[in-house]
Amino acid sequence: MAKFESNMPFISVAVGDRFDDHGWDRLDGVGKIASEEKPKRYTVHSVKNTVIEKGGDLLLQCWLNLQPYEGTRSPVWADD
């Protein structure tokens, strides 16, 4: 599980969307497990949204349950 924060809205995400992980440092200290040359691919299995108040601010969270995907990249980005 990872936490990303932004003061701008994220793009909408739907079940079935594909993600290519090109490498980012994991919060649990395992480092980067993917790269541009060897991306890890995922699809969105399910989405959970929560709304909470924290320190007087309204916090909107979008939780993604990702499943490993062994197929090619999305055709929009070319098949490599």
Topology:
Blueprint: E1 18-21, E2 40-54, E3 57-68
Antiparallel strand pairs: 1-2, 2-3
Kindly report the average pLDDT value: 82
The biggest sheet amounts to:
3 strands, antiparallel
Spans of at least 5 consecutive residues whose pLDDT stays below 50 are none
Strand content: 35-45%
The CA-CA distance between the termini, in Å, is: 27 Å
Strand order across the largest sheet: 1-2-3
Number of strands: 3
In angstroms, what is the radius of gyration? 15 Å
Structural class call reads: mainly beta
Could you say which overall geometry the principal axes of the C-alpha atoms support? globular
The topology string of helices and strands comes to: EEE
Amount of helix: under 10%
Q: How many separate helices?
A: 0
Could you walk me through the main structural features you see in this protein, from its secondary elements to its overall organization?
- The model has no long low-confidence stretch (mean pLDDT 82).
- This protein has strands spanning 18-21, 40-54, 57-68.
- Helix content is 0%, strand content 39%.
- The chain has a domain at 18-70.
- With 80 residues, it is mainly beta.
